[in-house]
Design goal:
Blueprint (H helix, E strand, L loop, with lengths): L11 H13 L20 E4 L24 E2 L6 E2 L6 E2 L16 E5 L4 E3 L14 H7 L2 E7 L7 E7 L14 E8 L3 E6 L19 E4 L19 E6 L7 H5 L10 H6 L3 E7 L4 E12 L15 H4 L1 E2 L8 E4 L22 E4 L5 E6 L14 H7 L2 E9 L5 E8 L3 E7 L2 E6 L9 E8 L3 E7 L9 E4 L6 E6 L14 E10 L5 E11 L10 E2 L2
Antiparallel strand pairs: 1-5, 2-3, 4-14, 5-8, 6-7, 7-14, 8-13, 9-12, 9-14, 10-11, 10-13, 15-29, 16-28, 17-20, 18-19, 19-28, 20-27, 21-22, 23-26, 23-28, 24-25, 24-27
C-alpha cells in the first residue's frame, strides 16, 4: 500500500537518526532536512525525502526516462545537437542535488490541508521511512500522482529540494538559470524560495506567490492546443535564465506589506530552496515525473515568459503577414484583442470567461493553467501561453433550467465597472463603431456546436445577432459578414459593445473542450494566419 505523506513534526527524530547514519556510512545515505529549516511558507504537511546513490531502473510513472524529447533537440540556428547535462541531478543515478554540501540537496514535499502526493512504491529504506530511494529506482526520477482536493481555494501539492542549511542562504547565480527535464499532467510552477517577511500578515493565495518563479507547461493533456490539439507524454526539457523568474502581480500589489520584492537575479544570490508546485482549479489527479535538473543551457529549448513556449520549440511555420486583418491570436501570448479602442482603458479588448446560463443552471471552465488570482488585464495570460489560444474544458450543470451556457468574450471599448466579486467584475460596456471590420473571423476548436453573439445597442440581449460555429475536429477558421448574422440588424457593426463565443448544453454534467486561437476582421481569404506544425 502506498504510504501517505508524513508530517514534518513526526519525522524530526527519525531525520536526526538518519543524519547520524550518513556520517558513518558511505554506502547507504538517506535524505534529511534539518528541524526548523523554513523551506516553504505555508505548508501544512511535509515529508523528508532522499534516495540511494545507485539507481539503475528506468521505469517511470509518466514519460519514461528513456524517452526524453530534448535529448535530440537541435538548434536550427547552429545545427548543434544539445542534450541535458544533468550536472545538478540525474534521477537515474543521484540521490540528492549536487550542492557540494552533504547537509543540503535533499528532496521534500508539502501540500495544502487536503491534497497529497501518492508515490508509486512505498517510501523508505533500512535506515529511515522518509527516503525516496525506491521511488528514484522505480521512476528514474521523482514521480508520483498529485491528488488535488479543494474545499474553497485552488488545491496544490509541491516538491522541492534544499539548497541552504538552517537559517542561511546560498548563492547559485553562477548556474545562470535552471533546466528541468520532466513530464507532468499539471503545469509546474518553479519558485526560488527566499526570505520574504510579511506573508503571515496577508491572506495569500498559494505557496510561492511572493517568490520569483516561472510556470512550465504540462506535457500530458486532453486540452486542445495548437500542437495538433494535444500534448505529449514524452518527457521534455525547458530552460529559464534567472532573469526570467518574476514575482506575481499579487506580490507587486502587496509590496508595501512585504519585506522585499526579489528579482530572479537577486533571489539566485540568496536562495534557500527551489520549489515545484502543482496546482489545479478544482479536485483532480495528475501524474508527474521530474527526471533531471541542469544548470542553464542556451542550446536547449527555452521557456519564454512573455510569449509562451518559443516558436522554434513548437516547430511552427508562419504562412503570411496578417497584420491588416488579424486582431488577436493566441500564439502572440497576449490576452488583449486589438479593437481599435484600446487607448480608452486597460481592460478594453481583454478576453474573459463568464457564465451565460439562465437562473437554475450554471457553468464553469476548467483551465489547463491557472489564471492570475487578481482581476487584471493580463490575468488570463498563463492560460493563453499554455494553449497558444484561450482554451479549456467547459462544464455544465443543470438544476432547474433547460440548459446551461458557457462563454468567452471581449468588450470593444471601455466600460464602467460597478462591482467585483473575486475574479468577476461587473459594469456596463460602452458601444463603439466597428462596422469597417466587415464582420468577424474566428479560428477555433470546439467539441460541440457554438455560436458568435454580437451585443448591439437598442437590441434586446436575447435578440442579439448570432452566427453558428459548427463543432470541429480540429482548428478551423470561420468568417461571417455582418449581413450574414441572424436576426439581421440594420447597420450592424455601428454600435457594438461585446463579442461573445458561446456554447450551450442541455445535459447535466456535460463537458466541452474548446480553443479560440484567432480573432479577426472579416475576410474572404481568412483573417489570421495561424502557424501550422511541421510534424
Amino acid at each position: 500500500m502506498l504510504k501517505k505523506l508524513l508530517d514534518i513534526s513526526a519525522c524530526i527524530s527519525a531525520c536526526s537518526f538518519v543524519l547520524g547514519i550518513v556520517a558513518c556510512s558511505d554506502d547507504n545515505t538517506a535524505g534529511v532536512v534539518e528541524d526548523g529549516n523554513p523551506i516553504a511558507h505555508g505548508e501544512s504537511s511535509s515529508s523528508v525525502v532522499g534516495g540511494s546513490s545507485a539507481v539503475e531502473s528506468s521505469s517511470s510513472v509518466v514519460g519514461g526516462s528513456s524517452a526524453v524529447e530534448s535529448s535530440s533537440a537541435v538548434q536550427s540556428s547552429s545545427s548543434v545537437e544539445a542534450v541535458p547535462k544533468f550536472d545538478l541531478w540525474n534521477g537515474k543515478v543521484d540521490y540528492k542535488i549536487n550542492t557540494n554540501n552533504d547537509n543540503t540537496g535533499y528532496w521534500f514535499s508539502f501540500s495544502d490541508d487536503y491534497s497529497r502526493i501518492t508515490w508509486p512504491v512505498p517510501m523508505g529504506n533500512d535506515y529511515s521511512d522518509n527516503t525516496l530511494d525506491a521511488v528514484f529506482e522505480h521512476c528514474g526520477g521523482v514521480c508520483g500522482i498529485a491528488e488535488l482536493q479543494s474545499l474553497e481555494s485552488k488545491p496544490w501539492v509541491a516538491l522541492g529540494f534544499t539548497l541552504a542549511e538552517e537559517n542561511s542562504t546560498v548563492d547559485i547565480s553562477a548556474w545562470g538559470g535552471i533546466c528541468v527535464t520532466y513530464a507532468s499532467e499539471y503545469p509546474v510552477s518553479v519558485y526560488l524560495n527566499v526570505n520574504v517577511g510579511g506573508l503571515d500578515t496577508i491572506d495569500y493565495v498559494y505557496p510561492g506567490i511572493a517568490y520569483p518563479g516561472i510556470t512550465l507547461p504540462k506535457t500530458v493533456t486532453n486540452t486542445p492546443t495548437l500542437m495538433n490539439m494535444l500534448g505529449s507524454d514524452v518527457a521534455i526539457t525547458r530552460c529559464a535564465k534567472w532573469s526570467d523568474f518574476k514575482v506575481s502581480s499579487w506580490a507587486e500589489y502587496n509590496k508595501a506589506k512585504l519585506s522585499k520584492i526579489y528579482s530572479g537575479e537577486e533571489a539566485a544570490k540568496e536562495v534557500k530552496a527551489i520549489n515545484f508546485v502543482f496546482m489545479g482549479n478544482s479536485d483532480g489527479k495528475g501524474k508527474f515525473n521530474i527526471l533531471g535538473i541542469s544548470t542553464y543551457d542556451e542550446n536547449l529549448p527555452q521557456w519564454n515568459r512573455d510569449g509562451g513556449t518559443n516558436e522554434q520549440d513548437l516547430g511552427l511555420v508562419t504562412t503570411n503577414d496578417d497584420s491588416l486583418t488579424c486582431l488577436w491570436k493566441g500564439l502572440d501570448g497576449s490576452g488583449i484583442v486589438n479593437t481599435g479602442y484600446n487607448d480608452r482603458g486597460e481592460f478594453v479588448g481583454m478576453l474573459y470567461d463568464f457564465d451565460a446560463s439562465p437562473e437554475g443552471a450554471y457553468s464553469r471552465i476548467e483551465f489547463p493553467a491557472y489564471p492570475n488570482p487578481e482581476y487584471e488585464p493580463y490575468m488570463y495570460e498563463p492560460v493563453i501561453m499554455e494553449c497558444n489560444g484561450f482554451c479549456g474544458t467547459m462544464e455544465f450543470t443543470l438544476e432547474k433550467a433547460d440548459y446551461a451556457a458557457s462563454a468567452v468574450a471581449f468588450n470593444i471599448a471601455e466600460d464602467t465597472l460597478t462591482s467585483c466579486e473575486g475574479n468577476t467584475c461587473y459594469g456596463t460596456p460602452k458601444f463603439a463603431d466597428i462596422k469597417d471590420w466587415g464582420g468577424l473571423c474566428i479560428t477555433y476548436y470546439s467539441e460541440k456546436d457554438a455560436y458568435l453573439n454580437v451585443v448591439v445597442k437598442d437590441v434586446p440581449y436575447d435578440n442579439s445577432p448570432k452566427a453558428s460555429l459548427p463543432a470541429s475536429g480540429g482548428l478551423t477558421e470561420k468568417c461571417v459578414a455582418w449581413d450574414d448574422f441572424q436576426p439581421r440588424v440594420p447597420n450592424l457593426g455601428t454600435a457594438v459593445s461585446t463579442i461573445q463565443f458561446i456554447v450551450k448544453s442541455t445535459e447535466n454534467g456535460d463537458r466541452n473542450q474548446f480553443n479560440i486561437a484567432g480573432i479577426g476582421k472579416y475576410s474572404t481569404k481568412g483573417a489570421c494566419s495561424i502557424p501550422k506544425t511541421v510534424y
